[in-house]
Amino acid sequence: MTIDLTQFHDAFFEESFEALDSMEAALLKLDIGAPDKELINTIFRVAHSIKGGSATFGFSDIASFTHSLETLLDELRSGTMQVTLAMSDLLLKSVDVMRAMLRAVQQKKPIDAQKVSDLQFDLELMIAQKDTAVASAPAPAAPASAPAASASAPAASGSAPAASAQAAVIDAPPTATRWQIEFRPFPELFARGNDPLRMLRELSELGSLETTVDVNALPGFAAIDPQSCYMAWSLQLTGAVEESAIRQVFDWAEGDCELTIKPVGESASAATAAAQGAASAKQPAATSAPASASATSASAASAPATSASGPSAPVASAPTAASAPAAAAAPSTSAPATAPAPAAPPKLEAVPKAEVPIEKMADSGSIRVSVEKIDELMNTVGELVITQAMLSQLGSKLEGTTAEKLRAGLAQLERNMRELQETVMRVRMLPINVVFSRFPRMVRDLAQRLGKQIDLKLTGEQTELDKTVLEKIGDPLVHLVRNSIDHGIESPEKRLAAGKSAAGTVHLDACHRGGNIAVEVSDDGGGLDKNRILAKARDRGLVGPNDVLTDEQIYELIFLPGFSTAEKTTDVSGRGVGMDVVRRNIKELGGKIELRSDLGKGSKTIITLPLTLAIVDGQSVSVGGETYIVPLISIVESMQLKAANVSRLSGRGEVFSFRGYYLPIVRLHELFGLEPRTRVLDEGLVVVAEGEGHQRIGLFVDDLLGQQQVVIKSLEANYGHVEGVSGATILGDGSVALILDIPGLIRATNIRSAA
Amino acid sequence: MSSNAPVKKTGDASHQVLTFVLGNETYGVDILRVQEIRGWSAVTKIPHAPPHVLGVLNLRGSIVPIVDLRMRFTLDRAEYTAVTVIIVVSVVSAAGRRDFGVVVDGVSDVVDVDTEEVKAAPDLGPKGSTDFIRGLVPVSDRMVVLLDIDRLIGTDLTSLTGDAAVAAA
Predict the structure, then answer these.
(1) Phi, psi dihedrals of residue A404, rounded to the nearest 5°
(2) pLDDT band of A751, cuts 50, 70, 90
(3) Of A198, A326, A334, nearest in space to A260 by CA
(4) Reading across the β-sheet that carries A602-610, which strands appear in turn?
(5) Closest approach of B57 to chain A, Cα-based (Å)
């Protein structure tokens, strides 16, 4: 039987990248000296599952590397090694390398073997150092021996430190133990991608293995389903093996089999004895697979599966019952249906132990849905809303008693519709934490590189915003945080001299503000030096020597392309290609960016963004029978002009005075070639709209219609880009209205006036 | 190109064609390209569009441009009434699949066209471009002009320059 494993690759990569993120987060939380046991378990779990997955899919490079990593982590977990700064650095580097390897494999590119083997060497060196250090110390090294001994097989490189590690391990006195293992897979074991032969082979690597196969359940030849497993095994394993090591072998089959692991002889650990005690109330054989959540396994082997076992546990119990007829034929098995009962109490005990935030995040009861499906859903809901609006319009025209009832029904429909639309919108929303979570690592690395002490404070991580916005806000934020660290926060000496604490603080905050989301990046560093910015601008001729600028205008200079006040460029920032890009990105998202600073006390950047790119708050205007939507974010004010306020500039363009400034009048009907209701300026209305960099125009239209939220539709999908138009939307009556792109309109008029 | 020679085609020997009337001629498009047929409704004008692009319509949530084939073929412009028909077709170009609506006088029939019977369009020289004509086929005493809609609409709309329209005029 061959299964095309490549179909699972995507899921594996996606899960692995996610797991690496949580591993990284756990590593950053890890306290040097007094590490949290659960955190180490989390880290170990990630390494273990990536190792398992990559071995299954035949990514041997990754499997080999993660194996070395796992060996080191196992030392940490068993407490034979302590977490040092060097080690956490090494582990973080391992995360990077694993990410790079996975990405390379995903994109079918060659893996940077040199980098990998270098790091693997470092990892093994660290393990070897520990072994030489512990060699004189008494027995506790023993439990670690099993995984380390098997290290030799995948790590075929045979490098010197690996060999020495092995040697050291073998020296440790083995505690001879015998284990009795009853492995009774459910028929669907194969379907879940498990291979009992692989497990048996792995077991035989742990010690000497005696196997007895039970074929009683095997049906007649004609009735055999080649995709089902009918066999069961009774195994005796002799060797210095921990129960957790055995359980690890069966990790992937958990829930797909009945598994009993019992020590034979006197060296059973207290914990297993307790587990046995609990089970002895029933027949010993009843301690089947679900019962594996016994006291020992809670801390170790079953841990990799805890997050997964949540949803799968109830499913697992069903096959147990289903397999009853098949299993009944087999001797030594009591009714499997009773199995879940004894399993329950130890499971409950295990739960409070696992109370770690990371654990909770991993098991938030979510499902993966492709964005396409959600977009489709959004589309359909949008259509429904339009249909509902049409019905409402029709309904309001009807008369009679039934019409009254119909209207009541339509009103109800409208309410439900609005709720449905909001709910669907929310599906696209993700917490901003997705973006924020990359910063702890970045800040740590940057601070180390620049020799600064920095505390990163994150608040409002749960604030939700649209996925598309989320994807585009990452880079600008990275830039701002880098700026804060590189230019904002001073060196510890400078800070102490200024009477501040040695460690600077960078604060990232997100919150909802009206229909928008506000993201703030603030630091308690030196702040912006207005005079220096101004001097630099005068130097470069951007500002006249005698011009007087407001604070706001001075900060505005920073957003000019190529403007940097940094005394020297570093590899982190200072090249002056930053803030203008940041602002452009934010503008593209329909947002605003604002800078505030207090010299000597720090600076703050406030980014205001729309919650979603799919909807825009718009003002409908009419020109020559057509309806256009002007995004509210671009509108400053709407007003009726008085002829007295309008003047002509040398016969070319019309301007009007607005709060002390003269703004050009743009006649939309001229620009779009329409026949307007009126050409007389006092008879229509003027919408004062703002484009890039406070550039304002007065847009002359026939009339203002109303404000509404509109769903943005692409005009480019079937047609193409139109200058001055950012998209289209469908109005309540089913007709199409174009959404105006004010910056684009301003550009278009400039081109026109130049021509 | 010699006129009236059979056009070599790979694939099935016959395929279905939706025929429609425009002025005095009957035209045909591959039925597999037809998304739907709908009645006329008011369109929203697009600024700076070529003259034969009337505007856009809402087609079940997507914005679809509407092309007047009469203007594309430089025929006299007809009044748009309740019986005016829009055929929504999908055009495949380098930029991917796009949907367009074409305004025609009326839809006639779906006919089976034997690939063997399709004749190449004669070269009309400088008087008119026949790039967008896939061939001519007789269907019950009438000549049906098979259109290559990818060329007819795809090129001049995706480039949006209107050059093709000028060239055809």
Answers:
(1) -60, -45
(2) very low
(3) A334
(4) A454-459, A504-513, A516-523, A602-610, A592-598
(5) 6
Distance CA A639, CA A688 (A): 8
Of A717, A723, A730, Cβ closest to residue B58: A730
User: What's the confidence (pLDDT) of residue A292?
Assistant: 39
- Please list the residues that pair with A518 across neighbouring strands: A511, A608
Closest CA to A730 of A362, A282, A388: A388
Q: Which two tokens stand for residue A117?
A: 């083997």
Strands B142-147 and B25-30, sheet pairing: parallel
Residues 6+ apart with CB under 8 A from A506: A443, A454, A455, A456, A457, A481, A484, A485, A488, A489, A521, A522, A523
For A328, A522, A653, B27, B79, the CA distances from B107, given in Å and listed in that order, are: 70, 66, 50, 10, 16
Asked if A491 and A452 count as a contact pair (C-beta separation under 8 A), the reply is yes
N-terminal to C-terminal alpha carbon distance within chain B: 23
Band (pLDDT 50/70/90 cuts) for residue A318 is: very low
Q: Is the pTM of this model over 0.80?
A: no
Chain A CB contacts of B149 under 8 Å are: none
Closest chain A residue by Cα to residue B41: A735
Q: Is it true that domain A615-754 has CATH number 2.40.50.140?
A: no
Q: Do A728 and B45 touch (CB under 8 A)?
A: no
Per-residue model confidence (pLDDT) at position A446: 87
ipTM above 0.90, yes or no: no
Q: Domain A431-610, what architecture?
A: 2-Layer Sandwich (3.30)
Nearest chain A residue to B64 by CA: give it: A718
Torsion-angle region of residue A7: left (phi > 0), alpha (psi -120 to 50) or beta?
alpha
How far, in Å, CA of B149 to CA of A182, rounded?
A: 69
Q: How far is CA A316 from the centre of its chain?
A: 29
Nearest in space to A456 (alpha carbons), one of A473, A470, A438, A474: A438
**Separation in Å, CA of A469 to nearest CA in chain B:** 22
CA angle centred on A194, ends A54 and A259, rounded to 5°: 120
What is the DSSP code (8-state) at residue B121? P
Each domain of chain B, given as residue ranges in start order, spans 14-168
Q: Nearest-CA distance from A626 to chain B in Å?
A: 7
Decide: residue A431, CB within 10 A, 0-12 exposed, 13-18 middle, 19+ buried.
middle
A345 φ, ψ (degrees, to nearest 5): -60, -45
Tell me the per-residue pLDDT of A560-598, one tens digit each, with 9 for 90 and over. Answer: 776 665 554 454 444 445 777 888 888 878 788 888 888
CA dihedral A183, A187, A191, A197 (to 10 degrees): 40
Considering only CB atoms, B65 lies closest to which of A386, A718, A724, namely A718
Indicate the residue of A627, A674, A713 with minimum beta-carbon distance to B63: A713
The CA angle A628-A629-A635, to the nearest 5 degrees, is 125
Name which of A719, A724, A734 is nearest B56 (Cβ-Cβ).
Answer: A719
Largest CA distance in chain A: 106
Task: Give the end-to-end CA distance of chain A in Å, rounded to a whole number.
Answer: 72
The model's confidence at residue B34, banded by pLDDT at 50, 70 and 90, is: very high
Domain spans in chain A, listed from the N-terminal domain onward: 5-171, 178-345, 371-428, 431-610, 615-754
pLDDT at position B125: 65
Confidence of residue A687 (pLDDT cuts 50, 70, 90): very high
Contact between A723 and B65 using a beta-carbon 8 Å cutoff: no
> Given the DSSP bridges, would you call strands A661-667 and A696-701 parallel, antiparallel or unpaired?
parallel
Instruction: Please answer whether residues A279 and A226 qualify as being in contact, where contact means their C-beta atoms are separated by less than 8 angstroms.
Output: no
Distance from CA of A8 to the nearest CA of B (A): 29
Q: Report the b/e string of A719-747 with b at 16+ CB within 10 A.
A: bbebebbbbbbbbeeebbbbbbbbbbbbb
Q: What is the CATH number of domain A5-171?
A: 1.20.120.160
Domain spanning B14-168, CATH class: mainly beta
